[in-house]
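Dear H.,

Thanks for agreeing to be a second pair of eyes. The structure we're designing against is below in C-alpha cell form, covering all 248 positions.
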C-alpha cells in the first residue's frame, strides 16, 4: 500500500506545495488530472496511483505499469512563462537526479524524453498543456522483476530493481524526484539545463537512426538547441529536428 504519510515526510519542497490525490486504481493519472482541473481543484497538485490501467505515452502509445511496483503519477501546475521554458528537460533531469539520490544508480536520457538504464527504457514523460494549465505525466519502472515486464516491451525495457537488485520504497523515490523537480523548475540558467541534459544523454555524439513521418534519417546526434530541439549531423550538414523517435 502506498503511504502518503511517508511521501509527505520526505518532501522538502518549499515553493511547490502539492495537494496530493491518491487513488488505489485509475485508468490514467493524466486523464484524471484534467478532470480535476475542470472542477477547479487547488493547484499545484499531484495524482498518484498504485494501479494505472490505461496509461498513455508519447504518440498515443500505451504505457505499461505493474500494480504496487511502478511509479505512475501526474503533476499539475499553472503555466508560468518565466519558468516553463525547457520544462521537459527539467523534468527529465529531476527524475535522473532523484533516482541517483535515492539509490545511487546512474541513469541516462534519450531524446526527447525517455529515461534509460543499460540502454533500456525505465521511464517516460508525457507533458500536456491546455489554456493556463500544465499536466506532467510520469511513469517509472521501479520494483518490477523480469517476469513483471509486459512481453510487448520486455526486450526494450527494464526496471530499477532489475538493475540494482534492490527493493525501493516508492514513496521515498517519488519524494526525491519531486524535490529535485522544484530545484530544476526554478532554474533560469537555460544553458546549464541544456548542459546537464546533454551530460545525461546516452547518445550524444553518437550515430543514431531517426524516424519521423515515415521517414528514416541516419546521422550523428550533436546535442540540443535552446528550445530543446535536436541537432543532428547528416552527411556533413546540420539538421534541426523538433519531433520524432530515435533508435540507438
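And this is the sequence the design step returned. I haven't edited it by hand at all.
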Amino acid at each position: 500500500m502506498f503511504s502518503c504519510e511517508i511521501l509527505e515526510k520526505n518532501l522538502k519542497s518549499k515553493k511547490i506545495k502539492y495537494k496530493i490525490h491518491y487513488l488505489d486504481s485509475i485508468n490514467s493519472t493524466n486523464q484524471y488530472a484534467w478532470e480535476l482541473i475542470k472542477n477547479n481543484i487547488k493547484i499545484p497538485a499531484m495524482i498518484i496511483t498504485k494501479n494505472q490501467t490505461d496509461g498513455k505515452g508519447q504518440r498515443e502509445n500505451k504505457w505499461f505499469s505493474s500494480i504496487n511496483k511502478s511509479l505512475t503519477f501526474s503533476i499539475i501546475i499553472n503555466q508560468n512563462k518565466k519558468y516553463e521554458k525547457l520544462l521537459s528537460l527539467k523534468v527529465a533531469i529531476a527524475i535522473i537526479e532523484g533516482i541517483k539520490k535515492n539509490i545511487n544508480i546512474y541513469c541516462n536520457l534519450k531524446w526527447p524524453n525517455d529515461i534509460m538504464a543499460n540502454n533500456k527504457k525505465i521511464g517516460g514523460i508525457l507533458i500536456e498543456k491546455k489554456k493556463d494549465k500544465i499536466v506532467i505525466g510520469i511513469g517509472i519502472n521501479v520494483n518490477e522483476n523480469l517476469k513483471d515486464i509486459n512481453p510487448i516491451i520486455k526486450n526494450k525495457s527494464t526496471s530499477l530493481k532489475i538493475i540494482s537488485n534492490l527493493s525501493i520504497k516508492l514513496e521515498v523515490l517519488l519524494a526525491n524526484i519531486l524535490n529535485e523537480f522544484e530545484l530544476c523548475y526554478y532554474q533560469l540558467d537555460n544553458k546549464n539545463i541544456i548542459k546537464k541534459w546533454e551530460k545525461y544523454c546516452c547518445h550524444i555524439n553518437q550515430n543514431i537512426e531517426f524516424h519521423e513521418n515515415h521517414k528514416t534519417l541516419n546521422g550523428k546526434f550533436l546535442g540540443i538547441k535552446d528550445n530543446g530541439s535536436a541537432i543532428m549531423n547528416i552527411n556533413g550538414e546540420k539538421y534541426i529536428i523538433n519531433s520524432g523517435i530515435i533508435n540507438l
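Two observations from my side: The first strand starts at residue 19 and ends at 23. The mean pLDDT is 92.

Warmly,
E.
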